[in-house]
Protein 1
Amino acid sequence: MSPVSDSTNRVVPGPQEPEKTYHPSDGLFTDAHVPDFDAYLAIYKKSTEEPEEFWADVAQEFYWKKPRSGQMLQYNFDVNKGNIYIKFMEGAKTNICYNVLDRNVHERNLGEKVAYYWEGNSPNHHQTITYNQLLRNVCRCANALKLLGVKKGDRVAIYLPMIPELVYTMLACARIGAVHSIVFAGFSSESLCERIMDAQCNILVTADSVYRGDKLINLKKIASEALERLRIVISVSLSMALCVQKCVVVKHHAFRTNSDASNKLQTPWDESCDIWWDDLMDGVSDECEPEWVDSEDPLFILYTSGSTGKPKGVVHTITGYMLYTSLTFKYVFDYHHDDVYWCTADIGWITGHSYITYGPLANGATSVLFEGVPVYPHVGRLWEIIEKYAVSKFYTAPTAIRLLMKYGKEPLQRYDLSSLRVLGTVGEPINPEAWLWYYDVVGQQRCPVIDTFWQTETGGHVLTPLPAATPLKPGSATCPFFGVQPAILNEHGEELEGEAEGYLVFRKPWPGIMRGVYGNQERFESTYFRKFPGFYVTGDGCRRDKDGYYWITGRIDDMLNVSGHLLSTAEVEAALTEHPSVAEAAVVSRPHAVKGECLYCFVTLKDHKEFNRTLMEELKRKVREKIGPIATPDFIQNAPGLPKTRSGKIMRRVLRQIARNEKDLGDLSTLADPKVVEVLFSQRCEAAA
Ligand code: PRX
């Protein structure tokens, strides 16, 4: 990829336009929901010109305790006209858990259909869960949460690995009107504590331990440390509202029978707070009347990195999210009832929320729920699972594709992948080389590669091809989904027509868009709506080509995307400067062959402190402890000084160019001390720390 300069004058990777488009639908999609591009255009037109009718049709498939009487959609996207808000089918009453489970069991006769094939980290652990079983387990969990005092509107923190209990707990919350806040089980105790505190959760659900590959992680220990931290904060602030009353602990399947592994575990236990999941569920009824809630009641909070360093609690509400995840799942994967669908994401991220839990279940789909990692116990694990369950729709991240590419074709050739029909990707720009490998080697040139662009905030796919309909260009997320109206603006907020490059924004809401930042309307408005009044600002750069296709060029704020996970540079900098030897730190991204981007950190030490290997290890540990292993820096450079403007602002553009060894630095006249740049270049890291 060749670097191009975006409208903010930052260098971002510019996707190269391929010479060829791909349209491999012949014979594969005889019954496609959208058979060709003209059909797509017609439905898209209806969705934007007659949105009321369009969404009313979609809503008809769902169960409503009380139908909508008012408007379908009310919103304000313009900060100059008052508060920003989005309301979809306000006043209608429903329950999303009822819609994704009971409706399938009782109205669609899918009770005996498999909802999930759970495949553990170890190939010896697996379990099949039908819709009947899922419903019963969710009801049991819902009743158990009620026994603990959880009511409508309460927040429940979930810190679990990819085990069935994670799905049970989130759906149980939805059933009783509680709000789940799932924290990815790779986050540190500090990150977990921060999220529990921000959402004021009073219940935490976790597990004793988990194996990730061959690495044992004592989750309960991390959770206990988080609760300990929380107690210290409470004792200082005297705010009992921050208190977690109960911590429910799932005994992981891997440690139920394997006494050797159990012995290795030392599960910290606090009798006044901790309770085993099995003890809590013992004797609890497996029937539970759903709580009928308003369309605009909150469904969940999910934290995503913020450019100030403090994560933002993205709030999604019930009906809009339900309709949108359900509809996107159906069309984007061209879902049919005999499909076996597999999304390799973790439910701790939005991809898992929308396309492992809610979207597939709303369609009555059969999914694989995978706990493991792509290369354990061998590099063919993903391909083995595709063969084992005859997976037809497969959804993964570019970083996983790039990792597996390194092992070549041979591991795939041992398995039968002929069941595959659609290959999806998500989370970061996919480089054409990875796209083509996915297409040629995994899909054997039969399956379209569906590059879905979206965000935690968008709830579901917003730019995406449709399998039978959209001619594909490697590296492009192609066209907007139904109801989505993108625009490209320049720095002055002027809308650019035709071929253009600039800020990607959306001019109107679609049902699945976020409703706010938990407890912080000001941050919601300033992050997404203040820069360009009247538009939702994604924070991504984007190019539109002559065919109207959209190409995401990467973030244009201080965020990085490491292996498909957004991280804020400010958050990593805050972790580094907590080290007693560090005076100042600046973090930028550097391209990485597998992770897409990685962290390159510049640290300025306090007087008389020495930069050495021990310090580097301590800094890496500090970041892991504060944020989690995903944020571990790849490069740490000693920086006697940082390039700053006369007003003291760090010029990150220059640091990025040093990290990437780009010598043509352009105009440096605003720098207070240009000599610092030479010094930094002479000391730049070639090899990872
Ligand atoms: O920069 C874009 C990138 O990931 C960001 C959203 O991250 P997150 O909220 O963690 O959600 C990830 C999963 C939906 C976006 O702002 N991104 C996501 N998908 C793509 C992408 N960049 C390019 N192409 C994509 N398909």
Note: The radius of gyration is 25 Å.
Protein 2
Amino acid sequence: MIKSEAKERIEKLKNLVDKYRYQYHVLNKLEISEEALDFLKHELKKLEDEFPNLVTADSPTQRVAGKPLKEFKKVRHQTKMMSLEDVFSEEEFSEWVDRLDRLIKSKPNHFYPHTKSFGVGVYAEPKFDGLALSIVYEGGVLKYAATRGDGQVGEDVTQNVRTIESVPLKIRAKGRVEVRGEAIITKKNFEAINKRQKNKGASLYANTRNLAAGSLRQLDPKITASRRLDFFAYDLSGAEFKNHSEEHKALRDLGFKTGGGLEGICKKPEEVFLRYKKIAERREKLPYNIDGIVVSIDSNDLFKKLGVVGKAPRGTIAFKFAPKETTTKVEDIIVQVGRTGALTPVAILKPVEIGGVVVSRATLHNEDEIKRLGVKIGDSVIVGRAGDVIPDIRKVLKELRTSREREFHMPKHCPVCKKPIEKKEGEVQAKCVNKFCPAMHREGLYHFVSRKAFNIDGLGPKILNAFLDHGLIQDASDIFELKEGDIAPLERFGEKSAENLVEAIKSSRKITLARFLYALGILHVGEETAIDLAEHFGSLEKLEHMSKENLESIPNIGEVMAESVYGWFRDERNKNFLKKLLKYIDIENPKKKKPGKLAGKTFVFTGEMESMSRDEAKAKVRELSGDPSETVSKNTDYVVVGENPGSKYARAQKLGVKIIDEKEFLKMIK
Ligand code: IVH
């Protein structure tokens, strides 16, 4: 090919590759296959190799062309890169609005013609959790890119930013144009990179932000390229715009990603709250991390007039999500006795808000966990909520110790009944083995009325405590004897509420055999086992008289469970309790049914499914005579994997158990 032909072909190829890059990395839809795109890039590369002086800086082949640097050059930002003030609640957000309105009112001439902060509305968009970048184009070509640094002077990371496919190397614009935005890494890439780090025995990245920052500050652009960063733009200068929203539209027209489709104008604070909630709900499912929303006064004129306070513009606020982790102090460690006698150490925390709720206790599980964490009474700790629900201590901040912290030791005696406690060889949990321990009894009662057992509306631990403390009940069967007149005099009760409770107790008398067995609180008999037992034996009478061997012969019941069930029905105290209890209740035995199409198949679920909850999925399996289980073993037939699967997924892979996704599962139960 002669040079003039090559030049023409190169120009065309560059434009075509850029078009498909934009489709793929910005719009997320590619009209051609990835292989075809690779082929176009390959042809371009070959031509450029043949005619090296036809290579230009905006060529897609130049995304990873740089050699490793010795150090980053410093770049002075033309205008300062600011930061944002944070608010964490609707109240704090409203205070920001009030503050602006007071300011506007106090200087009407200065702010003319604006009379209210929400006049033209505000623009709300996600707050991406990454690293701020300034990218400068001159004559439409990417000239340089810099990190925020101290706001005035940043580091030149041009080579690295060129590797980000969602950043265009050329744009349709004249003169000097500066685009600011956030470089991020997707959750998926983060996981994959950490997995690689782990396999290499290298240290892991703490979060997506650290990884994004670490990847941009690489002297070798090849490493940055391998991290596949992404970029969301939020600010454009170099042209005049009336509103922030128009600026965003212009950014999109230039080929940048903005807002991730979550952005928009809000005309009232209530609309901001609604958008905040909607975005918060979608947060987990988004492919990247966000940590709040950014709300800006939409009118650029008013925004400018509002000016700056400290390092932050007055006209923009970061409305952050409640933190999922926070720090607090361990004020004490107490020991709780559970229904089965298990002793659980619990950290009493200085109350803090995590993810929108106040938390004051966190389970420490057992002595081993305390040792693993190295936690002492008085320590400063990082707490989070496991699975976003259960508070847990993640880390002890040993650097903050004062030497006044106290070591915790597991007691040798039950804190409630004072009898010696037992810890068997090889077991992690210490236990109170006193059958008559009042603490175990109390916990057993809580369990008896709980949602998956008798499910008595309005009867929880607090009221049960009051019943016990007033001597109204001795054991669970006494609950069914309670009359309105017994309950009404108690604190927080009146005649009406007492009547309602008696009614709720009455209507709970009819109960399925499975729920009944679960309510008894037999050691090792959880919800699943109770269902297995009920379905297998069909009636309480049959189960009561079963031999140990017979119990062991049913699927999912091992020796320990069989022993426990057998022993329970032969204990004199339990026998008396049962006799008393059966006077009040009416057990519904399971109907004999024809075996369904999943008969004999065991299923384990891990991760979230889209179309149903895990409980619903298990019920479905049971309905079709299959066997849902919590643990993956060689005998598991299927492991159904949803979003964000847990360790069961890895275990299934290891054991070679068949793994199916939600779609396949739905097909099986159709
Ligand atoms: S506008 C005045 N919009 O949050 C700074 N910032 O806490 C301009 N950030 O340094 C901020 N997503 O790195 C804006 N949609 C967004 C953002 C965003 C993330 C970052 C930005 C800034 C930091 C301030």
Note: The pocket of 2-(butylsulfanyl)adenosine is lined by residues 82-84, 125, 127-128, 132, 182, 234, 294, 313, 316, 318 (CB under 6 Å).
